LysR family transcriptional regulator
Amino acid sequence: MELRNLRHFSALAEILNYRVAAERLHLTQPALTRSIAALERELGVQLFDRDKRHVALTADGAELLERAGDVLADAERLAAAADAIRARQRDEVRVALYGVALAELTHPVIEAFCERYPRATIRVHEADFHQGLDPLLAGEHDVALLPLNVDMPGVTRVPIFTEPASLALWKGHPLAGAAAVDVTEVFDQPWVTPEPGLDFWLGGRNGDDAPTVGFHARSAQDVSLKIAYQHMVGLMPLSATRMFPHPGVENVAPKETLGLVAAVAFPEAGHSPAAPAFAEVARRVARRASGVPYAELAR
């Protein structure tokens, strides 16, 4: 069975339009028709009811669609595992940066790792908040640098330092000029947060009060844009106010000190041999250099 036929089946099942599905798959419409027909012949099952105007999944097609999705997901995981094996063979280390990563220490840490392991090739990627840590656990990245206050299942978290968080308000917000603000005062306003939820920033803050989440951002810049132009509220690492300032965002200190833990993370099982070494280099660099204003080193 050809995986490409399963992909064509899944795409058509999602769109239920041969022309649109063929365009999305970069195929001609007759080529897509032949692919679906070949899959139906191989399975011995009619997957779609179709006439000149309508396309619909049959009951058998709907039942097989979920299983086809599982097969395709397994194939993607296999490909990611193969990528990880090739990366290890090439002494390649793939580093994902979430937001401000390790703030001002990000560059010194990567440089120090390259000096310590000159055969290693570093590939740096900007992470998408919406994907959470799934790419790391799937083997697409070897190491992640990110603010992470809580332990995550399947992930080894190595704290490097803790820095204060800043409450980010749009320019002109009634509280923008305050010396300090109780964050619960703005819980009823729309908040912009990254994935996976507020624990990423608030560090597992408990209680009945919770912010009203209006948008999940994909990046640190996306957070600033939503605050500045859609009048949302958010929390940022204090380093973000230095590294990514925005003229439409005002930063105010929270009355209750909120700390964000900058960490190196890698999978607990099947991780690259370079991952623990990278974390150790990060800890050494942090101990040698102050680097991040107002930060407290992890013990």
